[in-house]
Amino acid sequence: MSITLVAVVVALVLGHVAPSLVTSVRQFHWYGHWLRWLDERFPGDGFWRGRYGIALAVLPPLLLVGLFQWVLHEPLLGLVGLLFSVLVLVYAWGPRDLDVDVEAIIDAHEPAARRDAIARLWPEGENVAADGPALVEAVFRNALRRWFGVLFWFLLLGPIGALMYRLVALTAEGEFHRALPHDTREGARGLLSVLEWPVAQLMTLAMALVGNFDSVFHAWREAHGNTLQLRTGFLGHAARASVRSELAEEAEDYAEEGMVQAMRELPELRDAMSLVWRILLVWMAVLAVFVIGGWVS
């Protein structure tokens, strides 16, 4: 089986079996210390404080991971390389599994507990919204940032790709970005947009295949997803349209059968997470076809 398939399955299983342990392991304090050292080492105007300063931050750890990736590819018939790939993907995944956070929202019945659970879907410092459309968009934004962005670049480049995406995301909008020079931060955001745009396009394509194609396609075009603007807002727009269409179809089916639909709590959130799982299954199925065809090692 492909290293990628094995690594993704292990990452998902560990997130469910030992979520607290995995979350505690996914710490990037070393990267925060490294960014602060760079900021202190280069206090004046220069490359670090320019738009391309992000390269100074991410290249050293990526070169180290790339060296391990190359050295460990062959020993023991690739088993050591497989273990290394799994470890890096598990480390870059998350930091928490999305479906665990969504279940925590659904299971929280006290208003305060639900607000705290919902806040985990928003970046620190941003206003939290609890309405259905906002939750749908938050689920897909987190799916892109926690799962699919890491998976896509892991698929293309291996462990170095997964870590690259995670470090750029942490620099651009994660826990460390506020302490960085403005131009460095803006450069990181530009690079993150480049990394995420193809991922969001592929997620939207899979969404159209597993959901309502017409709704997704029209929403994608309305949000200018058919242009080369490096923005990912079309993903949330398409997700809202798809979930809205599925809920309407479900209500229509109940009406045609003369049944009274049982009102589920947070139906948009449940349908959004179901849609994310279906998109992941499509990705995994396509990857399995590549593996069978011998195109992915």
Short description:
Helix content is 73%, strand content 0%. The chain contains 13 helices and no strands.
What brief labels describe this structure?
297 residues; mainly alpha; 73% helix; globular
Describe it for me?
The chain has 297 residues and is mostly helical. The protein is 73% helix and 0% strand. It has one domain (3-293). The chain contains 13 helices and no strands. The longest helix is centred in the middle third of the chain and has 29 residues, at 182-210. The termini are close together. The relative contact order is 0.12. Mean pLDDT is 85; it is low at 259-263.
Spell out the helices and strands N to C.
HHHHHHHHHHHHH
Secondary structure tally: strands: 0
What is the approximate shape? globular
The stretches of 5 or more residues where confidence is low (pLDDT under 50) are 259-263
The tally of helices reads: 13
Tell me the helix content: over 70%
Q: How many independent structural domains?
A: 1
pLDDT averaged over residues: 85
Structural class: mainly alpha
Q: What is the end-to-end distance? A: 9 Å
Instruction: State Rg.
Output: 20 Å
Strand content: under 5%
Biggest β-sheet description? none
